[in-house]
Design a protein that fits this description.
With 313 residues, the protein is mostly helical. It has helices spanning 2-28, 34-41, 48-58, 64-76, 91-126, 131-145, 148-162, 174-204, 207-214, 219-248, 251-256, 262-272, 275-303, 305-312. Helix 10 packs antiparallel against helix 13.
Amino acid sequence: MLNYIIKRLIMMIPILLGISFIAFILINLAPSDPAEVALRVNEIMPTPDAIISMRQELGLDQPFFYRYFCWLYNAFQLDFGKSFIHRDRLVWDEITRSLGPTLILALSSFIFILLISLIVGILCAIFANSLFDYMIRIIVFVGTAMPSYWLALLLIWFFAGYLDLLPTNGYGTWQNLILPTLTLSFVYIATYIRFIRNNMIENMQDYAIFYARCRGLKGHTIILKHVLVNSLHTSITALGMSIPQLIAGSFVVEYIFSWPGLGRLCITSIMNRDYPIIQAYILIMALLFVSCNFIVDIIHQIIDPRMRERSGA
């Protein structure tokens, strides 16, 4: 097990280096000159002398690989430079300021996804092909096909416009959290209900479950301790990878509901061509995805002896 963990940690290094290099080179291949962009967003006339001075200030007059290794070395120390828009603010300060609201939104969405998916998925498997199951499958089909921005607009119209119950934007109270959480988690709930239902129905036909019934075990014991546990392997992988997706993929929801998180910061930076924040965002999200993938694999190794034997072989 320890050898497997060390091997996976070593494999993460070239992946992160490759992602950092691609992010750096794509930003530098952008058609706009970063020095000119930095001057324009600070309302300074981009004259040739001003552009040359700004390029020297940003270090853009240095060779490409020298700039990349300097940026990578500073990134390891959580120093991503200064924002082009707010020259007196560090990129890391901007990211940490926006990280808290995004984590709150992602955590509330994850808890909501976990509770609803487990409860409804188990009920759909127990009452398979019933009226309840058919209704949930229709909702699941609609949920997986509906874009997040369209669902957000429907929720705003119904809860804020028609019922006048919830605010449509802002941050700070639990009422502000309800609509973004519903919007962000709806697609994931539809996906995981389908995973849990299908896996449980398949495992219910297994000979081990037939043997458990012959032993006289109670129905809820069979469902929870045998069928559900054996059905969660696929869902654990999906749930584990949904954590970085909830953090990195919440930019549409955050922008619609004016939620001051990382997603909104990223969209604002793209519109203003604030390259240092974009580079830092890409690298941090890549680290988050790789780390969550690593944690999910370790969890699989712990709960599934077959995978331990396979990795050991």
